[in-house]
Design goal:
Largest sheet: 7 strands, mixed
Shape: globular
Strand content: 15-25%
Structural class: alpha/beta
Oligomer: single chain
Bound molecules: 5'-O-[(S)-butoxy(hydroxy)phosphoryl]adenosine
Number of helices: 22
Radius of gyration: 24 Å
Amino acid sequence: MTKYITKKSGKYWPSKAMKEIAWVNDKKIYKQANKNPVKFWSELAKKGIMWEELWDEKKTYIEKLPYFWWFKGAKLNFCVNALDRHLGRSEKPALIWVPEPIKEKPTILTYKELYDKVNKCANLLKKLGVKKGDAVSIYLPLIPEAAIAMLACTRIGAIHSVVFSAFAPDALKARIQDCKAKVLITADGYYRRGKKENLLKKAKKALRKSGIKKVLVVNRLSKNKTYFGKFLSFNKELEKVDLYCKPERMNSEDPMFILYTSGTTGKPKGIVHDTGGYAVQAYYTAKWNFNLHDQDIMWCTADIGWITGHTYAIYGPLLNGTTSLIYEGTPDFPKQDRWWKIIDKYKVSVFYTAPTAIRMFMKFGNKYVNKHKLKSLKILGTVGEPIDIDAWNWYFKKIGKSRCPIIDTWWQTETGGTLINVLPGIGPFVPTIAGLSFPGTRHAIVDKKGKKTNKGFLTQVSPFAPGMLHGVWKNHKKYVETYWKKFKTKYDTSDGAILKSGLIRVTGRTDDVMKVAGHRLATAELENTINDHNLVNESAVVPIPDKIKGETPIAFVVLEKGKPSEKLEKSLKSHVDKHLGPTSRPSKIFFVHALPKTRSGKIMRRILKNILTNEELKGLMTLVNPKCVEDIQRLIKTDEIFKNIEDKNANNLFKKD
Ligand code: WT7
């Protein structure tokens, strides 16, 4: 079996076989790109993307901080780049969709079939009154219609806003209202662990007074259901429209989509991505990181509700004319080897997932993976949070069978595409280290004052990557405060990082954002939701290390009325499920008399965190109510449930240094 890596002086490097197939295999590219990143991207952009009209060379990159533009004035249509230009090989599969129920047949859509469906969906949206620049909300599970809907929006220049299907109605409603979406595309439901989930019920709740005029419902669970009023059957309406939709001529800098993400305040931010710059970064990062060639089958396990799903389950592979596999269901359904079966059956060659999933499979034990040869695999990827060394080794040995490089990609919703990772043809592949800035991008690790150091805050420096966000939707102030206030001319990633022998190791968030099973969640967002409960006076949320999820939230609640009880803890947890979604549910809720606060009234979450993880308590002097700390310590020590949650090993695994 081909080995794609080799060991040299204690490190893994690409083997000859990998170097031979790699698009990029000479490390000189970094120096060349860094000499003139603007010229570098300009040349790549011309080669990789089909433009209807090129940009004026002087306008390749314009920077007026805090904003910057790539390829200003150039014209293109994103959908044409993802579909039309591959029609020459129209029989090639674009999407392989694996439904959760074992008995249900997978759907394979060729480029031509996908193209036809996207064109029709685009015409349908037009028929419903959607125009260039209008927003469309998409609340769909991982089914082909999700990709169809997203691409259809890009064809007509509508801005899509995908909302994760596990989010609660309130979360959907807030996102619909913020971008003033005209149409919602949703489904009657989907399968999760063999059970039917009713998505439409949640969507209907969100729709009350939301301003949505029309709702397209995909029949996923019941084939022939009919709908009334503002609800229309996606499948039936599609039959009534024309087969061809002329693509809209878009400016490179026109917004293509909004994706909401958690910030440090309670309200999610609408991250805006433009068309041309995003296309260029999605195309090249997918191509070079995962070395996509004609025969490759890429499986990115992320849901389309996250940026990873946007860029590497749908757009990156399609821009490259590759086949992308998507899977509807739970990783361990019906058995703990479902994923490995899928890889073997469909001969997946590039597999991209999150450390939290790897840790879950580790826990299931080796017997489920040992049965599978996984010989089609060439490249493994990881994303979403720092990967610990145990998970890295397991992934490398058990999934990659010590043959495949692991590409640890650091990036964010805001960056649109990957930014820090080593390239498969260059290496080295070092556990827990993301590595190098993608050619043509620059990062600096700085101290509080913005001065370069080897351990500190991770920033990006000018010229900023083409796929970077173009502001926060209708909220300039938020954009400036979040990304530009601290370091002025450097983009603040809010992550900490260490530079070691020229390689970057990202250590995790330095703000009040948690990464729970790879999902991004603000402590403030969860606190606001808990505080909305009628029995709660105030609350504080802090994450603790978790061996599978990476981090898990623990809540401290001061009650307004009522008495602490197990029942109340349960009801608060389901309150969170209902209003935010189960991914945000705290593992444990402690009812306390008071929260540690400074004289100015600031809740000292750091102290709560140190109590939970048994670390030295510092700064007690600054508290107005130091006595509450002892009460909380006592409460935690005697709690049986918490004893099982708190994992000393996890604590070591996720040490930030
Ligand atoms: C945050 C962004 C964009 C991918 C999905 C997550 C953390 C992401 C890594 C990595 C260490 C990572 C950072 C970042 N993160 N990838 N390879 N190593 N940390 O997108 O939800 O916007 O979260 O995820 O903390 O800031 P996101």
